[in-house]
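re: ur question from yesterday

yeah so i grabbed the chain u mentioned. its 849 aa long if i counted rite. heres the sequnce exactly as i have it in my notes:
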Amino acid sequence: MQAEIINNIKFGIFSPEQIKKLSVAKLTVPDTYNEDGYPIDGGLLDQRLGVIDPGLVCKTCGGRNKNCPGHFGHIELVRPAIHSEFGKIINMLLQATCQKCHRILLNNDQIASFKSEIDAELTTESGAKENSADSHSEAALLKKVKSIKKCPHCEAVQEKLKYSMPTYFYMGERRLKPDEIRDMLMKISDSDLLLLGIDPRTSRPEGLILDTLLVPPVGVRPSITLETGERSEDDLTHKLVDIMRINQRLEQNINAGAPQIIIDDLWELLQYHVTTYFNNETSGIPPARHRSGRALKTIAQRLKGKEGRFRYNLSGKRVNYSARTVISVDPFIDIDEVGIPRSIAEKMTVPFYVTEWNFEAAKALLERTEYPVVVNVIMPDGKRKRILETNKEDLVKELKAGYILERQLQDGDITLFNRQPSLHRISIMAHRARIMGGKTFRINYCSTTPYNADFDGDEMNLHIPQTLEAQAEARYLMLVAEQIFSPKNGDAVITNGEDGVVGFHLLTQDDALLTKDEVAYLLGIAGVREMPKEAKGGMYRGKDVFSLLLPKGLNYELTTKKEHFVIKNGQLIEGTVTKAIFGQGNTMFVKIVSDFGFEALRKFLSNASRVADACATFYGVSIGVKDYLTSEEVTRQKEKLIADTDTKVHDLIISYKNGKLEPLLGYTLRQSLERMITAELDMARESAGNMLASHTDKKNSAMLMSISGKGNIVQFAQMSMFLGQQAPMSGGRIKRGYYTKRVVPHVEPKSILPRARGFVTSNFSAGLTPVEMMMHAIGARSSVIHKGLLTPKSGYLQRRLANAMQDYCVYSDGSVRDVSNNIIQTVYGGDGVEPTRVRFAKTELGEGD
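ran it thru and got these structure tokens back, copy pasting raw so excuse formatting
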């Protein structure tokens, strides 16, 4: 059969005739198994619907449980029931048509006008009309007919029609029964249905009133056998049993001539069971429950939500060839490697495709008896054979081109590594396998930022690509070295940070000298085979050791506020390494990639992480209480700074009260005052940091970390000087209080002085006062609450955006279009720039690319 392109999919409602045509059995017995343990004929597990027991054969197709697709059955309801999921559509049809002649409640001129509106909506850009009337809005029609009290065709006065979800319809004070609604819907003409947005060739609205219920195959609702030997039925089967039992009781009562009230009660109960069969979370209807109190999981619950068929089984699946365990750090492996425990590597397999050209290698692999060995052989017909000692020799003899050997994972194999939540593209990257001992995955700390991973118990997932195409895509498109620059803004996100920056900062100091043994060790772990030039006294300069890690011929220059950093021809001439050089957003990595490529940067980062950590170990960076103690001079200057700040804020408040304060552009006088006070308090904190930096020895460990980039001077100042202004997540100064206009009961009501609104003048070394502790806690608690509320909102927003934009594609002309060829952007991103591929640098004229 020739493959065809699907243009569109049309959904409709099965008519009773279509249901009976699809069905293979009419079900009449509200039970499952007989006394001998076999499915009852006419019961809900009738063998004509398919089989789940290995020993049984389907009576419809003759297949067993593995190859029988399953077949539908049907139940004929004694009285019709409303399909609860289509209550709004039924209401729209009843509201829009006459209660006597069942014509649409518009006169001929209005019909012609409405038709032309629909035609205009359905006309495509090329001028061709589509065959469907589904796209026009029923809301426009309901708006037109809502005010019509008299039919323009038969002049019948229209009674007030009320709909109460999910299945209650009232005409005046009288409730309409399902059979009455069905009769009304049957009388609506095909031409009027087209106007109402329903294509009568696909489905008629009377199909929404069910008198025949489709029963899903047994495979959709399988029984399970408990440890006790008892059978437990699926929730859908339980619900169908309820429907059949009530249906039988209703039929018996009708035949016996029971009073109408009893028949109506049973009919209402049948409607309840049909409603909860489709959706057990219908608004206004109590959910059906087991005796244990657990709500039944019926059709709607199996389809929707995070664990429904669409999101749990179709959009995302449980997969083979994957592993998961805790991650731990290993600075001695490359940034694009992942350390895999031997126990996992022995269970994971990679396909080895046997060809005429690699036949001897395949044969040798199959004959291996020690790790890595072949676990399975896949024949050309798709059958898989497990390798055993008893069949290995025979398989070696029959091995030929076209076979696939599944061998254990080994060093160098390409793998995919992932951490959840996967919030952006680089949450899954390709790593080369490195088989190791232990029970955890090992990764280089440089590679943690894209994953947002740390080593406090995080777990990550490993996937093994199973086809040559998948392996090639992973190796050339997803490898870590290709993801060093962020898709967000092109900044480097895979960098040496924290201890690595401190280690290199110490190594590149002007007075940093190392012995020959230390240099040999550092260069040895980096794989460098040459020694730097010897300095005076048989020692070696740290700058020269660092230079040997750089690509030969690299020229780079950067001027920061604090110093000048110069590399000429691969030699560090001036400056020390800080976060500005090695941190995120640095431009030295851009220069390396531009001149030498991603492989050179990968090699540099891998070697640098090993050497930097070793340097930090050599020199040692220990923090003690003494590092945060300040001199009496600094303490006096701090107190003077706080007093001066109090005076400036007091003067601003006096100016405001006297009406002399000039408002800022775009702000009210009160807002201007707040902004001016905040600016003064922020300036005080910045001054405290500068004051601390100027009076602290550069060899001080805390100062060393602040300078190099492991932390910053503000954090140091909070330990030694004062915390400064505390702020909630909403921004600005703390202002909300309970009942009175003050944050805590220890300050004057309505006060806007710094300390009354969150300005903390103590530091962490000395400790905070109770009031200051409360102020400090407000910011932290606000942050926790904000994060807890924001996470689900942002997660839902991202999922909606991903679903809405999943068919958008950048075409060869640079435009962004969807599958219907609608143009979303004429140029990708508005500027045609891909952040990971464009390098930005400063020029003499300013910033350019």
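noticed a couple things. The CA atoms of residues 224 and 232 lie 5 Å apart. also Residues 499-619 form a domain with the Enzyme I; Chain A, domain 2 fold (CATH 1.10.274.100).
anyway ttyl
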